Amino acid sequence: MEAEVTQILLTKNKSNYSGDSFHESSLELKSYSSGLKWVFLDYSSLWRAGLSWSIFFLLNIGVPLVSHFVFSCSDCDSNHQRPYDAIVQLSLSLFTAISFISISTFARKYGLRKFLFLDKLCDESERVRQGYTQQLHRSMKLLSAFVLPCFLADSAYKIWWFSSAGTQIPYLYNMFWSKVVVCILLMSSWLYRISICYLVCVLFRLTCFLQILRLEDFAQVFQRESDVASILIEHLRIRRNLRVISHRFRLFILSTLILVTISQFVSLLVTTEPSSTISLFTAGEIALCSVTLVTGLFICLRSAAKITHKAQSITSLAAKWNACATIESFDDLDDETPTAQIASARVGCPVTSNWDSDNEEGDGDDVLDNTNMVPVYANTISYQKRQALVTYFEHNKAGITVYGFMLDRTWLHTIVAIHLSLTLWILNKTIGIS
């Protein structure tokens, strides 16, 4: 797997790297592949696939079931009781099952190389390949940044729980070693499940980031001599990649959204009841589980909205390009007029000019969405072709979709509004907020 990824990403570009740069990029990809192997499914042989499924059933189903029914500790004191353990185990296990089945499908159907679009990088520019290589390495750090804090927090709770409960916890033969083995199994189960959950979300973010790099590289066609046919072909290729990503992840995103919504409102309902006991000891795990689920959903929705916003910014960039070219064309027809010459000169050096007098960049300004003028080549493309291209962009907006619904910022605002309404309704039923 490591050799496959390294070869696809770096073979074409090998002559352009220095020795140190090539070695560093190879190490980054090896680190990424090695990090995936212990949670990503390896279907290279039948026994490895069987081992992956066996680990899944053991750590995602077997250990949580035994933990819930054997260590419910209904006779323990109030700090060691776990009244919300069923919600925690069920929510996290369902999220892991959705993620695991998605990864299994991707690994069996596409393989790591095709799934991460590494087989298509040979057709991309050097800037895109280098940016994607860096993002591959950064994704492993991002995965660790999400997994480790949750794992350490839950490990501290479990160690405290087993070490302070004493003889109230059931054990076999030797109390000390029974607690140690069970605690290690529960910690391993928690680590495995949150790793699988976050992994799919990080992989989705990674594939979206590649399309962002492609869009930013595609935006350069409006700053050099290009023909409409090549611009249209490149945009169609990007739209196809976005459709492929949408098709692969649509079921995962929709299932995650439904699961997280139901889980959070059930958690809110049971924790706000008048008879519920809320403390750091009893509700700590449900809070940690909620953070895990919501963060995973947030990564997916934010990545989808970001790539959709970038893809739709192409329309405004094309319209600005058409306007600049049209103004330049009319100025050339009347070049005796001093004002026309001044306007033409201003359009002739737009790349370095900003509308802001203090030369400060706006928040989020980039090559796709800024207030800079566009350098034009009036004699390259006719007005009719430019207008046809702008019309095409206006009626063929690209982005991440879920069964036809575009995951843009408007869609996210709708989700937030619906969740806020349901939250207030539940709080009104439980604690009487009017």
UniProtKB/TrEMBL annotation:
The chain crosses the membrane at residues 46-66, 86-107, 142-163, 175-204, 249-272, 278-301. It comes from the Eukaryota. Pfam families: DUF3537. The keyword Transport does not apply. Keywords: Membrane, Transmembrane, Transmembrane helix. The keyword Transmembrane helix applies. This is Gustatory receptor. The lineage of its organism: Eukaryota, Viridiplantae, Streptophyta, Embryophyta, Tracheophyta.
